[in-house]
Design goal:
Length: 446
Amino acid sequence: MTVKVRFAPSPTGRLHVGNIRTGLINWLYANGQGGQFVLRIDDTDLERSTKEYEQGIETDLTWLGMGWSERHNQSARFPLYQEAAERLKATGRLYPAYETQEELDRRRKVQLSRGQPPIYDRAALKLTAEERAALEAEGRRPHWRFRLEGKRVKWEDLARGHCEVDTASMSDPVLIREDGLFLYTLPSVVDDIDMAITHIIRGEDHVTNTGAQIEIFEALGAAAPAFAHTTLLVGADGEGLSKRLGSLSIMELREKGYEPLAVVSHLARIGTSDPLEPGASIEALAATFSFDKLAHRAARWDPEDLGKINAAILHGMDYAAAQPRLANLSADLGEAFWTAIRANLSFFGDVSGWARVVGGAIAPVVADEDRAVVEAARDLLPEAIDAQTWSAWTNAVKEKTGAKGRGLFMPLRKALTGLDHGPDMASILPLIGREKAAKRLAGETA
């Protein structure tokens, strides 16, 4: 059997880390099994769906390296959903109900006050044809509910093990709204059947829904796919991410400068037994993916961990990989420059600052108490500068001034770079060059 999975985001907003983790797990599993990953745009809500958000989904997935083998828009498939609905109506599994939301709310309150479960009482099934006609004459339009069989639905979940849901404890789900709009469940099942989806991989908040969906698969004469329900993301503090998702969109992470491999490595490995470190590639992450590695506790999204992974990717990036990006930033000062500064990068864009330090004009920083050290260093600056210059030169300054340790090295760093931190000065000094170094030690902007 060829594995075939689907990721079905709605184009009603930006993809966030919670969406992408679900999509990524689907992608990793399918690619690790030599299978197919289907992108299915859930744009059945025609009022809220936009082409801008749809394009954003494609942009985000492409940036992350999550290519797809098939792509579909559910808005183009309404005839299939209507045909399935008619089949369910013909067998009595889909029936019209006319209660307003206010009426349903009142019934639930009464049920709760009596200690009863607040599930739909199927009053609509007792309506006669005359009663339905009278309600419609009043202007009421029915919503359509799927009649559950009320049984224990069982499946072996790839992520959770043996699962059971008692559909007798559930309300018959609404599949079609009063305005004729298909809700998520029916289109999803119809498409899963039509596209031959073999595995449905999603968050654990859908476990209860699975019981109803399996019954819909069966009512349409199809076997249900395999299921995997993974734990949801929480923040570093253990709290849910729901209130912060606006600031965790993939677009925003991209704009902040995170590497796509850092994002997928972090999302692929949080909540698993794997170490939080960069993968060699998204394909390498897929090759080692296994549901057996997933923990049963919530996965923690921690920006600090993401930052560490991002920095590790940059620190290990060779010049050949970095060179085109350096050129795009007008910061390609050669392999020696990249080798010297990469360990100080948190984001690739930081390289522009170091390019200015080495090749641009900076204002030296010299405190009054450091002036004697800096002036002595200027007088002792060798004519030729190479990788060995820093050690010999600073030893000479130490002998002349008596300065040592931080009192020696920090004044020189600040005078030469304008900063109190940075790469090894033995590597930076030859890149700055003697002419700029002499001017900066003299207090000139250079």
